[in-house]
Design goal:
With 299 residues, the protein is of the alpha/beta class. It contains 13 helices and 9 strands. The strands form 2 sheets. The chain has a 7-stranded parallel β-sheet with strand order 1-9-8-5-2-3-4, with helices on both faces. Helix 6 links the parallel strand 3 and strand 4. Helix 3 runs parallel beside helix 13 and helix 12 crosses helix 13. The longest helix is centred in the first third of the chain and has 16 residues.
């Protein structure tokens, strides 16, 4: 009634014999459950100009710059919304998509538009976590696949294990080798990056200790991609934790034809610069302020 017929909240309340507050609550709940999806179709000239500059400066195949939100805390959501729309437009029949996880990618679910596609596969590129929260990587991959009507292959292992030997044993003896083989045929990888702050996803779930975080910082780490920690030059940091991560190897990611990083915010500039080099990213989705700072830092 509200979004299709154009009735006011007052008119809906009268027709249904309920209070206006109930109408508002139900409309908000429909948006929260993604039964109603809202986005704006339009062009912002400043963002277009920044996209062109980013492509020229970094050699990106594509760049998407979203307008700066009024509230800084909405940067993650704005980038995620744009990522969902971009991926929806990019997918086609017979594609194999690898996905990471995190707050930004979770927001992309709001605008993933189901399409009538055939033979699409979604592969989780990172192991899971014990605590079942909304940023669980397996949960994100499954929701992504469900929305796209795709087959889903989960990385059934902890995101971080206790030793390189355990990692190798899980891959060779517990069926994970099949995930790596399937990932050899990836057409697109959708990823985000994390900072070295204690509140960042990699540390929030206590999978990596604070002592290890401090040591990673000492060795020059500026961020993580799929829990792989790297420096500002885009090189993996020489630290034992990088040999205990249950994720697709970085060298394998570099061979994926379309490598998308969706991330932004004032605290992400340093780790984005490193991540772009780390996987030779060729599609970036970010916000205006971050785009401008990336261009300044790039020189």
């Amino acid at each position: 009634m509200y979004y299709v017929e154009g009735l006011t909240q007052h008119e809906i309340a009268e027709r249904l014999g309920i209070g206006r507050v109930t109408v508002v609550r139900n409309i908000n709940e429909a948006i929260r459950q993604r039964e109603v999806k809202i986005w704006i179709e339009g062009e912002v000239s400043e963002c277009f100009a920044l996209e062109a500059e980013l492509k020229n400066a970094f050699g990106f195949k594509e760049a998407v710059v979203v307008p700066e939100p009024v509230l800084p805390e909405n940067v993650t959501k704005a980038i995620g919304v744009a990522a969902g729309m971009h991926v929806s437009d990019t997918l086609s029949d017979d594609m194999t998509v690898g996905v990471g996880w995190g707050a930004t990618l979770y927001e992309s679910l709001a605008t993933l538009a189901p399409r009538d596609l055939e033979n699409v596969q979604v592969i989780s590129l990172l192991g899971g976590i014990v605590q079942a929260r909304k940023f669980n990587p397996a949960e994100f991959a499954w929701q992504f696949a469900r929305l796209m009507g795709a087959d889903c292959y989960l990385f059934q292992a902890p995101a971080v294990v206790d030793s390189p030997e355990t990692r190798e044993a899980l891959i060779e003896r517990c069926g994970l080798r099949d995930i790596f083989r399937r990932a050899e045929r990836l057409d697109l990888a959708l990823l985000s990056v994390g900072t070295m702050a204690p509140a960042s996803t990699a540390f929030r779930f206590n999978l990596i200790s604070d002592e290890e975080r401090v040591e990673l910082l000492r060795r020059g780490a500026v961020g993580d991609l799929l829990f792989n920690f790297y420096d500002r030059h885009g090189q993996l940091v020489d630290h034992p934790v990088n040999r205990r991560i249950m994720s697709l190897p970085i060298e394998q990611l570099r061979s994926v034809p379309t490598r998308i990083i969706a991330s932004g915010g004032n605290d992400k500039v340093e780790c984005l610069l490193g991540a772009i080099k780390l996987i030779n990213c060729n599609v970036l989705i970010t916000n205006e302020a971050t785009a401008r700072e990336l261009l300044v830092r790039r020189g």
